[in-house]
Write a structure and sequence with these properties.
This protein is an alpha/beta fold and 305 residues long. The chain has twelve helices and six strands. It has two domains: 83 residues, no CATH class; 173 residues, Rossmann fold. Strands 1-6-5-2 form a four-stranded parallel β-sheet, sandwiched between helices. A two-stranded antiparallel ribbon has the order 3-4.
């Protein structure tokens, strides 16, 4: 049965949304209520100060153009181009504050000694060629599904939302994350031709715009394609990217601080290989920035960290 959009229906929908959110905040019993309580702490989301015109707009959109969240399938009740509900956006687990000073791997329970960097075992062994890497979220649960949307369905508004979070990270730690140019991790030309876009560029382009920095989408190129095998072991991951990147002929990299952007940091092998190519071309520093990162041991071998 189709719902008629009338002068009485829209106010009733707004009242229903307010009542559900208020009840959830009061007793913590509903996911929408808990998300409403968290909303003030989620960057880029609106809070209790929204005007009645915005509420009417959202209600109209949810009735006239109903659609479900691409993660949990709840009905979207706000006029956002991001196809994920506020509850799911709020559920993304942020990378904790205690991390390796170089690669950004979470190191829960460890205390940093005064005037000494906190390093994971891989970075104690000087594994990576990049100067530093940071990520917005832990690669798990809803974040995984969001990144798949970005990677395989070219959901550009989601890329813009993530880029806003990355820009906030850079601005909050500008002394250590400052750069002169933003560069996406490239796909091999055959893979990009097949897909039609580079998912890393869906992040790096709006990020460069927010940071007011030049965006160099073709500065790096991948010279060797990724193996066709779907799942790679740790050894295969490192081997598949070793020497697989180079700067494009004629590109100017000398003495530049490069902000290198990708969707996920799994082992750090891809960022490492790109950083080595940039360093060889004369880059002053390379900072890796990703939407998410895995928390497992990034190196081949029997050790568990």
């Amino acid at each position: 049965m189709r719902t008629e959009v009338t002068a009485t229906y829209i106010p009733s929908l707004i009242k229903t949304r307010r009542r559900v959110d208020s009840a959830g905040v009061a007793d913590g019993s509903s996911s929408s209520g808990m998300a409403a309580a968290r909303r003030a702490s989620v960057p880029g989301r609106t809070g209790h100060g929204r005007g009645w015109l915005a509420e009417i707009r959202d209600a109209l959109v949810s009735v006239v153009f109903p659609s479900g969240c691409r993660i949990c399938e709840r009905l979207l009740t706000s006029a956002s181009r991001v196809p994920i509900c506020e509850e799911c956006l709020s559920s993304f687990e942020r990378v904790p504050s205690i991390v390796c000073d170089v690669c950004g791997r979470p190191l829960p329970g460890l205390a940093q000694k005064e005037e000494e960097p906190l390093l994971c075992p891989a970075c104690q062994e000087k594994t990576y060629a990049f100067d530093r890497a940071r990520s917005f979220a832990v690669y798990a649960d809803a974040v995984v599904r969001a990144i798949l949307l970005l990677k395989f369905e070219q959901v550009e508004p989601l890329g813009a939302w993530f880029s806003e979070r990355l820009a906030e990270m850079v601005n909050a730690d500008s002394d250590r994350l400052s750069a002169d140019v933003v560069v996406p991790v490239p796909l091999h030309r055959e893979r990009e031709k097949e897909r039609g876009y580079n998912q890393a560029a869906l992040l790096s382009k709006p990020l460069a715009r927010r940071l007011r920095l030049p965006h160099k989408a073709v500065l790096l190129m991948r010279t060797r394609a990724r193996p066709d095998k779907q799942v790679l072991s740790l050894e295969e991951r490192w081997e598949s990217v070793r020497g697989a990147f180079a700067t494009r002929s004629g590109s100017q990299v000398d003495n530049l601080r490069v902000l290198l952007v990708d969707d996920v940091l799994t082992t750090g092998a891809t960022l490492d290989a790109c950083a080595r190519a940039l360093r060889e071309a004369g880059a002053k520093s390379v900072i890796g920035l990703t939407v998410a990162r895995a928390v497992r041991n990034p190196l081949p071998g029997p050790r568990e960290w």
